[in-house]
Design brief:
single chain, 145 residues, alpha/beta, Rossmann fold, five-stranded parallel beta sheet, 5 helices, globular, binds 1,3,4-trihydroxy-5-OXO-cyclohexanecarboxylic acid
Length: 145
């Protein structure tokens, strides 16, 4: 079972970027915990981070080759990228939207996701643990298939 984890723009700045909102853990530390959890769950995980929309879209397209599910934190693209939404619809792989922060308790412009309607579900507000919960959920869903 292979799962692709995509971190979107500015998430490479975790630890430095607004720690009061996103916490003090670096992306590398979060990725380490994702890899550890994946190993426990018997999931083969690939983790990528892109600041560009194009790279995210191309990675989603390529996932069709060998990937069973996608976990995506689209960063700010969450709120307006119809192109990323269309890419997810194109490949029709089960996807979970993840956010470190609770986007529904923040600025109004963050409270709308154009990605959510094309995902199985979303997990937000638990910091780096949001990814861990998403991994567990995806495993449950993929096993039911
Ligand atoms: C975020 C929330 C987005 O609104 C923001 O633009 C981010 C991070 C989160 O994980 O909480 O870059 O996706």
């Amino acid at each position: 079972m292979k799962v692709l984890v995509i971190h979107g723009p500015n998430l490479n700045m975790l630890g430095v970027r607004e720690p009061e909102v996103y916490g003090r853990r670096s992306l590398e530390e979060i990725n380490k915990s994702i890899r550890e959890e994946a190993e426990k769950l018997g999931i083969d995980v690939e983790i990528v981070q892109y600041n560009g929309e194009k790279e995210i879209i191309e990675k989603i397209h390529n996932a069709l080759k060998d990937t069973q599910g996608i976990i995506i934190n689209p960063g700010a693209y969450t709120h307006y990228s119809i192109a990323i939404r269309d890419a997810l619809v194109s490949v029709r792989l089960p996807a979970i939207e993840v956010h470190l922060s609770n986007i529904y308790s923040r600025e109004e412009f963050r409270q709308h996701s154009v990605i959510a309607p094309v995902c199985l579900g979303g997990i937000y507000g638990f910091g780096g643990a949001s990814y861990i919960l998403a991994l567990r959920a995806l495993k449950m869903i993929l096993e039911e298939k």
